[in-house]
Amino acid sequence: MTRGQEIAGNLTKVVESIEKAALNARRDPSGITLIAVTKNFPISDAQILYDLGIRNFGENRDDEGALKSEGLPSDATWHFQGQIQGRKIKSIASWADQIHSLDSLDHARKFDAIVGVDQMAEGKVKKYFLQVNLEPGRVDRGGVNAKEVKRVLEILFRETRITPVGFMTVAPQSMDPLMAFRKVRELRENCVEQYPSLNQLSMGMSGDFEAAIACGATHIRIGSSILGSRGLPV
After folding, report:
1. What number does CATH give the domain 3-227?
2. How many CB atoms neighbour CB 214 within 10 A?
3. Phi, psi of 64, rounded to the nearest 5 degrees
4. H/E element holding 62?
5. pLDDT the model gives residue 135
């Protein structure tokens, strides 16, 4: 079996699972964006996915994303979903179309300062998801504490040009994914009347995307179920 055949077979199974989960939730599968997470895998795998019709790609590290984004046609959409380092923001902004892991006001202000004027001049607007941290006790888990989300949103909308399109989260291993995703969905529902732009939810990965779809996820981030668990040289 070639690598292309392996990826195609895995992708078919994932798409079928997405469609089944959507129908079970009485949702239209077309309302769910599949982001193929290519971190730790070579550009050749991203090219295979592109040739199979995938146009949304996710990366957790700036260096990989910057490299791979140059290797695919311009109609590919690149999603940054890793923890943000302040010194990397200028580089991330140069290639990522959507930022799923906006995790602090400080980082939001830096993105705003770097890309705001250029976007306004070119008519281009990046999409930002505010990352919700459901494990505030873990220093290695990025995001805004759920209790602080409304305060952060108020400052974002008042003091920056960044208009978040929704929330992103990673379900804690210690929590039932359904419970975690419901919590973030309810948080969005509590905020959307005041901030109508918050109409998207980025949640769900290979092990729990069915639960995320049941809870209204609009973007799911799938890596190992498509590409396998082994990382390859970029």
Report:
1. 3.20.20.10
2. 20
3. -65, -45
4. helix 62-69
5. 87
**Tokens describing residue 192:** 């959307």
* Contact by Cβ (8 Å): 3, 188: no
Nearest CA among 36, 31, 30 for reference residue 14: 36
Q: In this structure, what DSSP letter does residue 115 have?
A: H
From the number of C-beta atoms within 10 Å of its C-beta (0-12, 13-18, 19+), residue 118 rates as exposed
- Where are the extended beta strands (E) located within 3-83? 33-37, 56-59, 77-80
Evaluated on CA atoms 132, 167, 66, 91, the torsion sign reads negative
pLDDT digits (tens, 9 = 90+) for 170-199: 999 889 999 999 999 999 999 999 999 999
pLDDT digits (tens, 9 = 90+) for 54-103: 999 999 999 999 999 999 999 999 999 999 999 999 999 999 999 999 99
Average pLDDT of every residue of the chain: 93
The Cα 97–Cα 72 span in angstroms is 14
Please report, for residues 67, 85, 214, 231, the alpha-carbon distance to residue 234 in angstroms, rounded to integers and kept in the order given: 9, 21, 34, 9
